[in-house]
Structures
1.
Amino acid sequence: MKALKAQDVEHALRNSRGARVDADIPAKFQRGDRVLTRNMHPAGHTRLPRYARARHGTIAHDYGVFIFPDSHAAGEGPHPQHLYSVRFAASELWGPQAAGQDGIYLDLWDDYLDAVPDAAQ
Amino acid sequence: MNGAHDLGGMHGFGPIEREVDEPVFHAEWERRCFAITVAAGFLGRWNIDMSRYARERMEPGEYLRSSYYEHWLHGLQILLVEQGLLTEDEIAARMAELAAERGG
């Protein structure tokens, strides 16, 4: 079994692998695209919160390609894909109890999102 | 999973208490818990997303009654047992041993 010696800790921490993946994987969406989050309730790990499922949002930023936590947590591989900042109008998530013009930004992966057809926007 | 960790939008927990000059750790055991978790991660037997999923699987009532680093400790125990590095019995035996050393 690998053991981390005290003198190796700093090097190990500084060189630990991040979640960003250097791979040329196409993005499904671009900034400004309208998206609909999936209605999903997996028994495993996911970073799509319950309150943001089956909701409409807008792509605010594309961070690039990252490990997909859902498959990674299940030991099913990194399944790298684009990660976005998605803006939701507060009223879309919280209805009439939402404060005016507030927006909520969530970091969401391609596999959580579907395109909204032009006619539905 | 739809666990107790997914708190967004829930009511009834009261206001968030903001501490002035909040310390990174509120007790020495939290510092140790953090260090042991990070060190055990370098065994290479799990990744950060598996760690998060282990914490999420804490029994929901227990999750809500316990603190942040208690979630970490619970998650680490799950991973150590699932990966066959320790058994539940070994953890229980060591806890009993330490309790006896400290006079119960």
2.
Amino acid sequence: MSNEIVTDVVIIGAGPVGLFAVFELGLLDIKCHLIDILDRPGGQCAELYPEKPIYDIPGFPMVTGQGLTDNLMQQIAPFGPEFHFSRMVTKLEKLEDGTFRLETDADEVFLCKVVVVAAGGGSFQPKRPPVEGIEEYENKSVFYAVRKMDDFRDQDVVIVGGGDSALDWTLNLQPIVRSLTLVHRRDAFKAAPASVNKMKELVMEGKINFLLGQIGKLAGKDGQIDHVHITMDSGDTPLPATRLLPFFGLTMKLGPVADWGLELNDNLITVDTEKFESSVPGIFAIGDINHYPGKLKLILSGFHEAALMAQAAKAVVSPGERVVFQYTTSSTKLQKKLGVV
Amino acid sequence: MKILVTDQSGVEHELEGLDGWRTMEVIRDWGLNIKAECGGACSCATCHVYVEDGWFEKLPDPSDDEEDLLYSTLDKKPNSRLSCQILLSEELDGMRVTLAPSAAKDSEAA
């Protein structure tokens, strides 16, 4: 049975622009649900450059990707947005009554009046490592994420990578596997130092192995690996393995957005510059995912687009209702919504 | 100053470079087929180029982050670099690079 959620607006993408859309819609009394493929808010700011400084956010001489995300989360908290992380919208259809039905890969159904696509460069997907023929093993014995820990119980597991995902799963899976080998191409890790220290302790205690090298070809049949070749300075070694977990980071793919019947321009959603509405009325697109003459892929442009989109979305959510334009500095009504008076 | 960029279909383009710009920015600005998805943060590997011998040696060594990312591509060669990490200067006037297949906008490899 699908879990059905009914709401005014669904925002696809919880990056900075999707988050700020919650604010602009919230001021107009519109309630939002956000869906994102990552496990946390921030989009590219959180995934690609959390520590990198951004210098062109108005009013912030400098803010990091994570800092901007944290501030936005604080700013939109009064509107109680509901987040649905680690899932992808797989289907979007317009129903006969003009409302929308969305499906996610987590078996949820959303029914809403307005859809806001704020999906940036598309959805983040795990990078496929440079190993020939790896496709035939994927989701059988090669996984890019751990969905069920039980799939790894009593297995010979090889984990590849030096970031938090690789280290976290090394620590989490170690107690239940038959054997575990961590492979990384250098003896320096991007993961949290505490995890790295714990991993090194486990190596010292002989509970896991660490190999300095790269994965080469895979051996096995019918999707089940039995050996992973590891290329090291000392040469090529076959390592017995029944499960492989490569963590090579994420890349952005447009994904299902291409299948929703929206007019696209070079994989970007064509919108007007008054409402930022797509070719399908009621579906808006803001931020890096949209295209219009003169478009600049800047976070600040996305914020502007969110504000104008919200006015248009209000007309769809509450048809006929008069919207009085107000400032947060002077309107007691808006200040009440923000919880500051 | 100029750089010479060969695209994925083998066509060479002579591009006007600007001192202090990143090679990736010049290639993107001229509209060649480069994904450059993280915008120059050294966080993806979608601005991957091969730098011609003679020029490759002039570049400062890659950072560990850049090396890690290059190793995540399917088409790494000994002269691979991320073009967002190559800052243009007069010294690189005339540099020749070739866009890697994995830098293409529609690449599955990256």
